[in-house]
Design a protein that fits this description.
It is built from 15 helices and 21 strands.
């Protein structure tokens, strides 16, 4: 066989490992990973593999890591030129630009299982938020971790004194009570919070923009158990940014994998039974298949959208500045101006990432992350930039904002899955057949933890179907 037609799938059973030669391998050095990944050239043959994993996001990487731990041969197929899916970071002119607003929460149970947080050089956000209203900026701090800010928080016009007592009680409750999912109760986050008697000021100026920034959806569309989970996680640790960007999280997981079991730039065009048709015109026949893509792509491969939810979109604009930032605290800034909510306002929250993690920007520059309430698909990027800067000129010194230089926009069409009460009353499946499994954040919760938990669950099902006992 000519060297250009050699293909390696670990454990495929019909091909032996070919020698590495310049004519048969591409070497991709992706800046996010800082390592070489070997990718075989296109060939026109069929091959067999024990487990095919479709999708190299956090769910797929978790599946691969577990299968490798149990010495199960697998082939991970990723359509993009890099691993990590939506958890990615680009280096643009020395700025680290995460693909949309993302934070790392080291108290996530799945993170504790699979990620060594100490190697990420985490830099923390100030707990709480700075909220912009028509009367200015007001601090809502975490009194448990920032007791010196208690008086300032109590005097803040965001909510009333009873609201702050309710938040403290809720925080204590979720941090001490074991999480017990009850999928027979279908409440939205809005209904759940209203049941506590929170004022409209607290709901509209704090909870709505804060949780919209996390779940890319409105309170009435969020499932209350997802809120309880994320609120408990925030109560246990700081929200952080890794010093090398969020892309360093999947990079750490990927670094433990056998690069010969990974195929980048490889899209699965169709799935027929256990036969995968690749964009390289190859055919891959697997004993087991794990579909670890987002929901829309999973539905496309299965030729069915049954029980697979649609996704919310998001949009993030990045700017650079040579001037000082208008806010020096490493904190999230929420749009709590209720009057702007019903007007032409497009901003949900902003932050200055290099104030949290200095490595996010060159030493003589600052990075501005502007996150929109929703992705205005009918607006061009230029229009969004103009609208955002015009709005921010009302927040800060106009001359300061005018100096900000646009870097890049990230429109994420499939940012997070919809987890409404209607979806949760008929949740998506995690198993299509005895040999085909599904995983992704839409199968668990719209978080990094949810993606990894669903990947672990899929790996456990695969191992069980192969007769392998596992203890994870």
């Amino acid at each position: 066989m000519h060297s250009n037609n050699r293909l390696l799938f670990v454990g495929c059973g019909i091909l032996s490992k070919p020698p590495r030669c310049e004519n048969s391998w591409h070497y991709i050095n992706h800046s996010r990973h800082n390592r070489n990944i070997c990718v075989p050239r296109r060939v026109s043959i069929s091959c067999k593999v024990q487990v095919a994993i479709v999708g190299g996001g956090m769910a797929g990487l978790t599946v691969a890591a577990i299968l490798q731990q149990y010495n199960v041969d697998y082939c991970l197929l990723e359509a993009k030129p890099y691993l990590g899916g939506r958890v990615a970071t680009d280096n643009v002119k020395g700025f680290l630009l995460d693909h949309g607003f993302q934070v790392f929460i080291e108290s996530y149970p799945e993170v504790r299982k699979f990620i060594d947080s100490s190697r990420l050089c985490l830099q923390h956000f100030e707990p709480g938020a700075l909220i912009r209203t028509k009367t200015g900026f007001h601090l809502v701090a975490d009194p448990f971790r920032r007791p010196l800010f208690i008086v300032q928080s109590i005097q803040s016009p965001i909510g009333n004194f009873s609201d702050k007592l309710r938040v403290a009680w809720l925080r204590s409750r979720v941090s001490t009570t074991p999480r017990q999912s009850n999928h027979k109760i279908f409440l939205s986050t809005e209904e759940y919070l209203n049941s506590f008697g929170f004022s409209s000021s607290m709901m509209e100026q704090f909870f709505r923009p804060f949780l919209r920034g996390i779940f890319s959806s409105e309170l009435q569309e969020q499932y209350f158990e997802d809120f309880l989970f994320i609120f408990s996680m925030f109560s246990k640790c700081y929200a952080s940014l890794p010093s090398k960007g969020m892309g360093s999280v999947p990079a750490q997981l990927a670094a433990s994998l056998d690069p010969h079991s990974i195929r980048l730039n490889t899209k699965v065009e169709s799935l027929r039974g256990l036969q995968l048709e690749l964009n390289s015109h190859e055919q891959l026949i697997a004993q087991k298949v794990v579909i670890a893509t987002d929901g829309p792509h999973a539905a496309q491969l299965l030729d069915s959208s049954s029980n697979i939810p649609s996704y919310y979109s998001s949009c993030c604009l990045y700017f650079s500045s040579s001037l000082p930032t208008p806010v020096s605290l490493p904190i999230l800034i929420l749009n709590g101006n209720t009057e702007s909510v019903t007007s032409s306002s497009i901003i949900n929250h902003i932050c200055f990432p290099n104030k949290i993690a200095p490595s996010y920007a060159p030493s003589d520059r600052n990075l501005v992350s502007v996150n929109l309430k929703l992705d205005e698909t009918k607006s061009s990027v230029d229009e969004l930039v103009t609208k955002a800067k015009n709005e921010l000129e009302k927040w800060f010194d106009p001359d300061l904002v005018r100096e900000w230089q646009f870097l890049r926009a990230y429109r994420i069409n499939s940012a997070l899955p919809k987890r409404t009460c209607a979806v949760m009353s008929n949740p998506p499946p995690t198993k299509v057949s005895d040999d085909v499994f599904l995983c992704g954040d839409y199968c668990d919760s719209p978080t990094l933890n949810g993606a990894m938990a669903s990947g672990r669950h899929a790996a456990e099902q695969v191992l069980s179907s192969l007769g392998i006992k596992c203890n994870l």
